[in-house]
Amino acid sequence: MNGTNAVEDRERFPTLTAAGRAMLAFMREHPAAPVYRNHSGNKLLAHEVEEVRQFERDIATAAVGWPADAKPAWLNEFIRTAFASVPYYRQLGSPFRELEEIPVVSRADFATDIAAFVPDSADVARMINFRTTGTTGHPLLIASHPVVAARYLAFHKRALRRFGVELTHGQGQVGVVLLGYQQRCFTYVSVTPAMGESGLAKINLYPDEWRVPEDRAVYLDALAPEVLAGDPISFAELLKLPLTMRPRALLSVSMLLLPALRAQLEQRFSCPVLDIYSLNEVGPVAVYDARVGGHVLLQPQLYVEILDPAGQPVAAGQRGEITLTGGFNFCLPLLRYRTGDFASMAVSGDGEPVLVGLSGRSPVRYCALGGWINNIDVTHALQHLAIPHFRVHQHADGSVVLRLTQAMTPLGEQARAALEHLFGPGAVTLEQLTAEDKTVQYTSDMEGARA
């Protein structure tokens, strides 16, 4: 499955040089390399590589935010363009006078007909797409472009720079390794032209994807990437490997990262561990910074509303659904896109917008000893434990089931005791979480659980 040919490489890597070919061969043909199930490439044309580099320079110095009692200066033109060029909005008629008058959309709308949200100006011949299932249903096909995919790096660089990390790896070095730990996982190798064709690999740490499980550590040490990106599940597996490599940073880009697991990772690898709030529909949105008490926004052309269930803005400082307008994906401009994620909004001392108490899933209330509690209270109860993944379900009779992976069984009793402080003695039972893939973290059968 690791094989490819020169013709395929030219199609996937239009600007590939001899150095880039050597990097691809190194990652594919290393004796400890995994089974690569897929092929992918940057598909960037020469002029697009330069555009991406300029975009990175612009993002590095751009201000992010908007006046306290006003909208961003770019917003009105963005709305006018969307109503003129996007079929879904064009059929609504003339642009609305105020952003708040525009109907909200959700993942379900995209899943029904993603083509209706792609602007007429999109170059269909160059478009790319990928499918995501998410955690709450609505399988989704995302419209994108090679330039859009390459732009992610600009926001990751901005986030890393906040913690004192400037990326330096280039020709002949591996820049980024993306980690997964799933029974099924898209895996491939590529190079990053804007970073001198540094190597990029998406690997699956699931043991069945390797000749022998020991090859995982051998291969990662050989690649010695500057940055590792993954989720709490793959990072928990990473901690088990006898690695000698020292990445300069770890990026957690999906699911909840509990503080105890972050601390273990930082101690083991002696580097910052960044918790990045990122969505397939809009890319990297924000990065957590404990110094400001929340996730700091990363995109200068992204406006955030916090809405109640009726689609109305909540009062300042109140919690609601994160709703996005703007973005850098010119194949999928967003107008009032309800993300299904929840937080309140604040402003840092430097004037930066901050998402506070981010919960990347629909809020679920639980019936506890003192009445209804937020699912974030459950998170707080467990945050002292290095649990990479869990599920909490409340039955209609009020009993609670905590599901943990088999690897986390030794922490089960501590976790149960922590939750019983909320729900009462004997109210919590433990079960094994058997699904290796993404799952909905908080669920309930109780009437009124959906706040």
TrEMBL record:
Protein's name in the database: Phenylacetate-CoA ligase
SUPFAM superfamilies registered for this protein in UniProt: Acetyl-CoA synthetase-like
Annotated organism of origin: Duganella sacchari
Lineage: Bacteria, Pseudomonadati, Pseudomonadota, Betaproteobacteria, Burkholderiales
Keyword Ligase on entry: yes
Keywords, sorted A to Z: Ligase
GO molecular function: ligase activity
InterPro entries in the record: ANL_N_sf, CapK_Type1_Caps_Biosynth
Domain of life: Bacteria
PANTHER family registered for this protein in UniProt: CAPSULAR POLYSACCHARIDE BIOSYNTHESIS PROTEIN
